[in-house]
Specification:
The chain is of the alpha/beta class. About 30% of the residues lie in helices and about 25% in strands. It has a seven-stranded mixed sheet, with helices on one face.
Length: about 260
């Protein structure tokens, strides 16, 4: 990171959290934290501490969520139900819970290491439900096909039979039925290419019951992700906005059901 980039990062951090000695230490020492050391970040702007793993991509994701404004705060309504699919270590859920403390949030994350941190980062919040699973378009068994990749880049694929390494797949419809959810206000999806499968079939139940979709496309990892997403949406009245790497899709309530 160049000196200019570091100064820009400090300015963004100060704008979001203010800047005191502990915040400056957090910023300046992030490259020095030993690998796998659990680093707490405490701010009066957040209801509870946020935990990051030293020597990991957690700091990059922290910046994207909290400093780069990856997620809007004004949706024109107060969301009651949020699905965080590809929850990683829980930063998006922490962000949403601080913005919408009364919202019910369901998190889906397949990787064991990420899931452990997700539990830690969400343990103090009420109405947060966690699934250790991969999001898919049907009941299935999945495995992570690139286990040596960085934690935010795990790609899953379907396998025929369960094994010690396999992960349970869960569908959005199953989550809605199990959690007695009638409508999804915000559906956040960052699932490293699995959006191709999620939007390729079996979406007719939950898609018309969804108001806002926040999604990152991964066509660079799997061809056809964007095509699958927009083909599923084509019969609805919607508008698109961009926020960093995310596509924000607002579905017109009059076109739902």
């Amino acid at each position: 990171m160049t000196l200019q980039e570091r100064m820009e990062n400090i300015c963004r951090f100060r704008k979001k959290f203010g800047l005191n000695l502990s915040g400056l230490r957090f910023l300046m020492n992030r490259k020095r934290f030993s690998k796998h050391k659990i680093v707490p970040f405490v701010s009066e702007k957040l209801a509870y501490p946020v935990y990051l793993r030293g020597g990991s991509c957690d700091f990059m994701i922290f910046d994207q969520v909290f400093l780069d404004n990856s997620y809007p705060v004004d949706y024109g309504f107060q969301p009651d139900v949020i699905l965080d699919c590809g929850a990683n270590v829980g930063f998006a859920t922490v962000f949403f819970k601080n913005q919408f403390p009364n919202a019910k949030i369901v998190c889906v994350e397949p990787d064991s290491g990420n899931y452990e941190m997700l539990c830690k980062n969400t343990q103090n919040f009420k109405d947060v439900i966690l699934y250790k699973a991969g999001l898919w378009n049907k009941s299935a068994h999945l495995i992570i096909e690139n286990p040596d990749a960085d934690a935010p880049s795990f790609v899953v694929k379907e396998v025929e039979a369960a094994s010690p390494e396999s992960i349970k797949a869960v569908t959005i419809k199953e989550i809605m039925e199990e959690q007695q959810i009638d409508f999804i206000d915000i559906l956040k999806i960052d699932i490293e290419g699995s959006e191709k499968e999620v939007f390729s079939s079996n979406y007719d139940y939950w898609l018309p019951r969804t108001r806002v979709i926040i999604i990152e496309m991964h066509d660079r990892m799997k061809d056809g992700c964007s095509k699958s997403f927009f083909e599923a949406l084509v019969k609805y009245d919607f508008k698109i906005e961009l926020s960093g790497e995310n596509i924000i899709c607002f579905i017109n309530p009059s076109s739902i059901l």
